[in-house]
Amino acid sequence: MNAHVIIEARNVSKWYGAFHVLKDINLTVHKGERIVICGPSGSGKSTLIRCFNRLEAHQEGDITVNGVALHGKMGNVADVRSNVGMVFQHFNLFPHMTVLMNCMAGPMWVKGVPEKEARKTALKFLERVRIPEQANKFPVQLSGGQQQRVAIARSLCMQPAVMLFDEPTSALDPEMVSEVLDTMTELARDGMTMVCVTHEMGFARAVADRVIFMDAGQIVEAGTPDEFFGQPRHDRTRLFLSQILKH
Amino acid sequence: MLYPDTVEAEILVHKPWFVATMFGVVLLLFMAFNMSGTSFAELMRPVIGEPSVSGLYGRFAIAFAIAVIFTLNVVLIGFAPIKFQIGIVWLELLLLFIAFFETFHLSLPFIREKLPFLISQGVVTTLYVSAISIVIASVIAVAGAVAKLSSNGFAYAIASFYTSFFRGLPLLMQVYLIYLGLPQLGFVINAVPAGILALSLCYGAYMTEIFRSGIQSIDRGQWEASRSMGFGFALTMRRIILPQALPVIIPPTGNQFISMLKDSSLVSVIGVWELMFLARTLGQKTFQHMEMLISAAMIYWMLSICLELIQARIERRYRRSKVR
Ligand SMILES: Nc1ncnc2c1ncn2[C@@H]1O[C@H](COP(=O)(O)OP(=O)(O)OP(=O)(O)O)[C@@H](O)[C@H]1O
Ligand SMILES: [Mg+2]
To answer: Does A81 touch chain B (CB under 8 A)?
Structure first.
């Protein structure tokens, strides 16, 4: 296997009961690659990326992350997860801990990093998402955009090999979207491997190496931003783009 | 929190209709009683003459005086800041309560003589039986809640059978069953451990349900965030879920603690020398039942107040992260 492959999904299928959510998905994410996944609501985007850290189980096909195959009987799922950062639509910060503690918890409790070092790392990444001054506040005291940036910092503190984003800006007020997108853009510049589910087409155009369009559990189309936005090949893609770019 | 509106409403107890109604109700209420034999009627003697022959006029005068005092009292308290209001009202209710006890003509020397033993033996036993039971019940509750939420059939079955059984039987019966039933199986058990076992099992069952609902109240996103960082089940539970469930768990658990403190009196039936047992037996010889019962009642109350204060402190501590 290619050493630079971070995530590989081969013929992945998933069902919720009788409902076929993911249909024969094939996707390879290389180190340093930035991938944007878009598609209509209910098409299975969240489900797919949640399979990548096994928050969801897939029933058919293979998913390997950093060379480790994900399946129901794996003993080292925590190792895989600590290597895969995830940012959620609703932030999911730990409300009973300060911002700093949110960022220190992972390294300290999972990797056994000493407190002093964890604090240094946490402050470094809070600096990087530009909110070091909020370190001792609790999440509820921050705006949505700030909370989402803390969530990003929290994931980065684990020094993950890849970051997964599930619509990180869609729960935010419009004026806060750009501060989160700026953070993500910087992250991309620094070479972080990223898989982003987002409908921010400006971000996709500027940052993505590849844009993937999903519909009804299938990958309909994948290509560079220029191909994808310039000459979409499928009617469904064109329809989706015309709808989303209308606004 | 009943978040108060920012618009200041007129104080209720200063509204004329409220004052008038209150006055009328108190007047009529006390008119309905014949108060001519009370010490209050004695105080009124200059106005109404000999109370027992004062008739309707006497009744009216007494009720009127009481209504005036009551209404004035309420209206005046209405002017005080809230902290004073709470303090004064507590104090007045307490005084009424003491006045009620006065009517029993309790023998204070007898109480003074027996109180040290009531405390050194009774309170101490009550406290340590309750404290040990509370600790065991809490441990059972965490385990029971996890089992009830788990997808393991055995765990769920055992936990749900346990909660159903121990919530379904009267505690008194459990005390008997354990104390008298276990020896049948060959486990001879002393009264105190039997009492502790019964209390722990019974309260563990109630608290299992409290902990379960507390754990369930935590958003799924917290589990996912925790898992996505590589936290295992135990770590997620201990560091993420339970600390957040505490604000939900603490108020009903405080209730359980207070209730357990008093239910520990049920183990007196198997001869444990705790507070209730001594209260019933110490006064028996000299027929001074009321003295001991009321002393014990006061002690139970004071212990409960301590628990209430502790609960309030803990609640305040865990509310911190919610303030904006
Ligand atoms: N736990 C579940 N049980 C049953 N069906 C589910 C479950 N979770 C999701 N689904 C269904 O699976 C489909 C895909 O869901 P998913 O959340 O992946 O969509 P999505 O592409 O992320 O949509 P959105 O843009 O609205 O977030 C939807 O039709 C949804 O109703
Ligand atoms: Mg989604």
So the answer is: yes
Interface confidence: ipTM more than 0.90: yes
Q: How far away is chain A from the Cα of B155, in angstroms, using its nearest Cα?
A: 21
Query: Looking at residue B323, what is its pLDDT?
Result: 47
Cα nearest neighbour of B236 on chain A: A109
pLDDT at B189: 87
Residue type, B36: S
- Confidence at B141, pLDDT banded by 50, 70, 90: very high
Q: How do residues B290-318 score in pLDDT, each as one tens digit?
A: 888 888 999 999 999 999 999 888 888 87
How far apart are the CA of A166 and the centre of ligand 2, in A? 6
Nearest CA to ligand 1 atom 29: A42
Contact A84/B at CB under 8 A: yes
Distance from CA of B310 to the nearest CA of A (A): 21
Residue-wise pLDDT for B16-64, tens only, equals 999 999 999 999 999 888 887 788 888 888 888 888 887 888 888 889 9
A160 Cα: distance to centroid of ligand 1 (angstroms): 26
Q: Is A52 on the interface with B (CB under 8 A)?
A: no
Burial grade of A164 (CB within 10 A; 0-12, 13-18, 19 or more): buried
> What is the structure's pLDDT at B322?
53
Q: From the CA of B273, how far away is ligand 1's center (Å)?
A: 62
